[in-house]
């Protein structure tokens, strides 16, 4: 086990090392590295469809830059979330009702990876 820890420690310190580490409490360092799990569910519901992270960024949900871009996909296609990039591809629907239906369908079909 000591060998695995040494490899982890060496890699971690290359990325996040230095004297500055002594300024942080363990909980603060964890929040910086992996994010925060102190959720505001209302804020989370607004953006979780577009992010692949289950943690809140250190600067809060408002620091996420969400981009919705229009696509040339036909109206029968669903919106596609690219969660690694906080990006939503949205076909140009002719009515708000079609938009609502397609977006609801996309959100409800949330499991797995697929090409739509």
Automatic annotation (TrEMBL):
Every HECT domain range: 42-116
Domain of life: Eukaryota
Active site: 84
UniProt entry tagged with the keyword Transferase: yes
Keywords: Repeat, Transferase, Ubl conjugation pathway
Keyword Repeat: yes
Descriptive protein name: HECT domain-containing protein
């Amino acid at each position: 086990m000591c060998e695995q820890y040494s490899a982890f420690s060496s890699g971690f310190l290359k990325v996040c090392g230095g004297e500055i580490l002594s300024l942080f409490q363990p909980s603060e360092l964890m929040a910086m590295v992996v994010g925060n799990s102190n959720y505001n569910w209302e804020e989370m519901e607004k953006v979780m469809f577009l992010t692949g992270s289950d943690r809140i960024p250190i600067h809060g949900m408002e620091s996420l830059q969400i981009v919705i871009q229009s696509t040339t996909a036909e109206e029968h296609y669903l919106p596609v979330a690219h969660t690694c990039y906080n990006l939503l591809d949205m076909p140009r629907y002719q009515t708000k009702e079609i938009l609502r239906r397609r977006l609801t369908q996309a959100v409800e079909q949330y499991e797995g990876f697929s090409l739509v």
